[in-house]
Write the structure tokens for this entry.
Amino acid sequence: MIRGRFFEVYETEIDVRLADVGETLDGRVYIHLDLSNADEPIKILAQAAAELPPLDADVNINYNNSSYDLELAIVTVSSAGLDGLTKVFPTLKAGSGGGGGGGETLTRATSYAVGDAVTAVGAPGWATLVCTQAGTTAASEPSGYSRITKVGDKVLDGTAVFTARNIIGELDGVISNVSSMGESMTELDTKVAEMMSSTGLVMKLVSLDEYRAMESYSATTIYLCYEDETTKRVTRIFVGEDRVYAAGVKVTYQIDTGYSLERTVPDREDAIAAAPDAALEGYTLKSRINYTYVSL
């Protein structure tokens, strides 16, 4: 699962560029998730460079329809091949009882930090044990692990405290919420379609430049306008013609000497920043046309 989206990734072969003779490069293997690529939204890729570039990390990938990278392993690349391949991502493993717990098996007389996730031999198979108090485990496993019956049960192990969680159950809850959200969106789409049908309105997706350049506008058309050609994220919604947007806003700059200057400022531009040089000091904004639009 990456940023709330589930994928199945299968074994694959990837090419890695070897270094020149006498040169050593840093390398990485990573998953590249690109929601704007409908044909192949997820890939396993490799990089090798003297200095690796930052990975894509848009936490709002689902909203922006952008990309996100998850590093899987790092490696040293020479002219002879690859060396020191090291896994750098966390994994979920089955619990000791064969259930859905996650984490490495708890070891004795070992220091653990808050947030470390482990399993224990005596704990139920569904339980992932998350360290909630840093400390060192005892020389032998406490009997408290065998008495875990529910999420939230705590066990004092040496000086460390571990709290039981059901990771797979939590993931199931996320999936259920996503499914419910999908049903809600479907219901919303249906209601919007019914509203459009009953009112005779239609929707049209256009760029802001295209909207401004139109020679005529339909009063029964809702224009969904975007500025970014790549994402086509809607930033304005107009019903029919918005004269102020199409023509701009007339602004009068009044200077204290009694001299005034009138200019038309394009929509969404700063009228103060557009003030003439002579009016930057001591001018007041005399008049401006008011208008309303929907901004997302």
